[in-house]
């Protein structure tokens, strides 16, 4: 049996297994197996065919935003509207075949916006240019999932599944679980909160599936088996995602209202230039950039020219942005780890 078949077998079994107390170990184990096969599926192709021409765009500016969506939802139209770069837009699918970068200038920051080919179901397994597109998405600070407002929900759940299957976690934080493999001593399991989804036995079963027999595990949060598996597997990316419903000129006011109220969602029309300012405001919030204004002694700060820092930046980062040798000239060492307020 190939890996794809194994994956589909397990998915089917998970789907037909009722979720209850009696099946929780069985389900936990199935999920661990599934995560393992998916990881295998992604490994070999990394070196082989994942690099398409035009996909290795240099990171530039203060942050990177990737446009992910089905074909013809309006990604290229959006890039051409928001940046000075023109990306061909047309009514036929797969107009865009490579990664096209543009720059949004907003509040003194340069935000790199990447237009990408449309992706479809099966993208993670290499359909179309799905793999390359997803590889680029992993490098972004924020993903804009662009959806056609007339067919939004189906597209949204399919794409979420694709991204989920390659370890991208949207609008979720890293599970608060301390996990450390050891050389010996068996598995030590503890939790600081009441656990309703995982137990010591289930954690052990999952760890054994990964051939881990010695480790320290501390749950600081009531996590699910899936979240625990994410921690063991380790290479997950946790990313803010804005769901952008485009083409609202095609749907009723009631429908616009319903979509606009969904969490992490913005409704727009590129065609009629509706709500684009609000989208930018939301994007800025999701990027969570910090602006620092500097001033010369005795003068007013220059509010037109900020030092833009990303989440997790330290005082050392600020010094480097002012001058490369500044940090080394301080008498006391400059903190190189982030202050908690920024992290
Ligand atoms: N009615 C309407 N049409 C739009 C809107 N935005 C884009 N379109 C149209 O949708 C079609 C597809 O737009 P593109 O920008 O090429 O879409 P894309 O997502 O880049 O498509 P691919 O590159 O093929 O994946 C074009 O005919 C656009 O004119 C909108 O807000 N309303
Ligand atoms: K198109
Ligand atoms: Mg396009």
Automatic annotation (TrEMBL):
**This protein is called what?**
Developmentally-regulated GTP-binding protein 2 isoform X2
Species of origin: Enhydra lutris kenyoni
Q: Name one Pfam family in it.
A: MMR_HSR1_Xtn
Q: Mind listing the GO molecular function terms for this protein?
A: GTP binding; GTPase activity
Stretches assigned to the OBG-type G domain:
63-288
Classification via InterPro entries? Beta-grasp_dom_sf, DRG, G_OBG, GTP-bd, GTP-binding_2, GTP1-OBG_CS, P-loop_NTPase, Small_GTP-bd
Q: Which UniProt keywords apply?
A: GTP-binding, Nucleotide-binding
The keyword Phosphoprotein is annotated on this UniProt entry: no
């Amino acid at each position: 049996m190939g890996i794809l078949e194994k994956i589909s077998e397990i998915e089917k079994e998970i789907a037909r297994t009722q979720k209850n107390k009696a099946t929780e170990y069985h389900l936990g184990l199935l999920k661990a197996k599934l995560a393992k096969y998916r990881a295998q599926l992604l490994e070999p192709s990394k070196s082989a065919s994942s690099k398409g021409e035009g996909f290795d765009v240099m990171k530039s500016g203060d942050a990177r935003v990737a446009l992910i969506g089905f074909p013809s939802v309006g990604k290229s139209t959006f890039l051409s509207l928001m940046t000075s770069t023109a990306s061909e837009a047309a009514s036929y699918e797969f107009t865009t075949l490579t990664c096209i970068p543009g720059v949004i200038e907003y509040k003194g920051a340069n935000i790199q916006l990447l237009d990408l080919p449309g992706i479809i179901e099966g993208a993670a397994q290499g359909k179309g240019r799905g793999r390359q597109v997803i590889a680029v998405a992993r490098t972004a600070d924020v993903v804009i999932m662009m959806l056609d407002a007339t067919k939004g929900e189906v597209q949204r759940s399919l794409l979420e599944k694709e991204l989920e299957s390659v370890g991208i976690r949207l609008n979720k934080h890293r599970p608060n679980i301390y996990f450390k493999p050891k050389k010996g001593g068996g598995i030590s399991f503890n939790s600081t909160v009441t656990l309703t989804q995982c137990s010591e036995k289930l954690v052990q079963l999952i760890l054994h599936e990964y051939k881990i027999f010695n480790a320290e595990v501390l749950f600081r949060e009531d996590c699910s088996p899936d979240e625990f598996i994410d921690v063991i597997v380790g290479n997950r990316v946790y990313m803010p995602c804005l769901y952008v419903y485009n083409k609202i000129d095609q749907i009723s006011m009631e429908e616009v209202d319903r979509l606009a109220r969904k969490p992490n969602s913005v409704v727009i029309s590129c065609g009629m230039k509706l709500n684009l300012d609000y989208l930018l405001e939301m994007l800025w919030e999701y990027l969570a950039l910090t602006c620092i204004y500097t001033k010369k002694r005795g003068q007013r700060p220059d509010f037109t020219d900020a030092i833009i820092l990303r989440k997790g930046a330290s005082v050392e980062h600020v010094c480097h942005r002012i001058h490369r040798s500044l940090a080394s000239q301080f008498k006391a060492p400059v903190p190189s780890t982030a202050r908690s307020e920024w992290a």
